[in-house]
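Box 3.1 A note on notation
Throughout this textbook, protein chains are presented in two layers. The first layer is the amino acid sequence; the second is a token string describing backbone geometry. Keep the layers aligned when reading.
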Amino acid sequence: MGVYLVPLAFFGFLAFGMPVGFAIGIAGMIGILDMGARFMTMAPDRLFAGLDLFPFLAMPFFILAGEIMNRSGITQGLVKLADALVGWMRGGMAHSNMVASVMFAGITGSATADAAAFGNTLVPAMQKAGYSRPYACAVTAAGSIIGPTIPPSTLAIIYGSIMGVSIAGLFAAGILPGLLICAICMALIALTARRKGLPKGEGRPGFGIVLKALREGFLAALLPVFILGSILGGFATPTEAAATSTATIPRHTWSAGISPAWVTRTGPTRSAVSPPRTKS
């Protein structure tokens, strides 16, 4: 009976619009109840054993670090740095989106956090600069895929913890594929920029502008190096590196005189990125 009851319950809940996670959980509980009381006594122990893994703590810390950076405005410095490096090309803001995604992925390791951060900032800015909303959303979505690839990847943490594989080794193996994804996306943007009529920046920025952008985005650019270097160098575990990076960001925020959104009660940063002046 349970062989048919569980899939029927799962697809039935989905048909009524229940979120996938809840549908899986409730259908699983129905299956456990159908197995009898013996499995009911084992279920809590097995559920806790699957979650009682110390490396899993790294994931919420990395995501929290990215959320703090986004709400405090540090992410805007990262975006300005990316724009100073590649924003002068045709389709510059699309290129900047990709470069910023690589930098941000080196902090959160999450596609969702990446898409949420730049969906609130770069997508409106790209629209104001002359990009279509579907194109801006597509570029942001493609850039967010780099999040689970570039270390510290949350998927690498899950896989390494469950399968007993070195998380540091998985992190090192993810660097080249993540950069390759970014390079392919930027090449595609460059190839289609003129045909789509994407805006072009006014020209290469001077050394002083790049230096100023580097100074503003220094912490965001340095954090991935600190995280990966401490893990691969054997100085910290992924969880310790995540906790340290999370604790470092608020101190830098207040010492730099930035007013975080949760202190000023202004809410999360939406579109503080000013679109550059462009020429067609």
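DSSP finds 14 helices and no strands in the chain. Residues 167-196 form the longest helix (30 residues).
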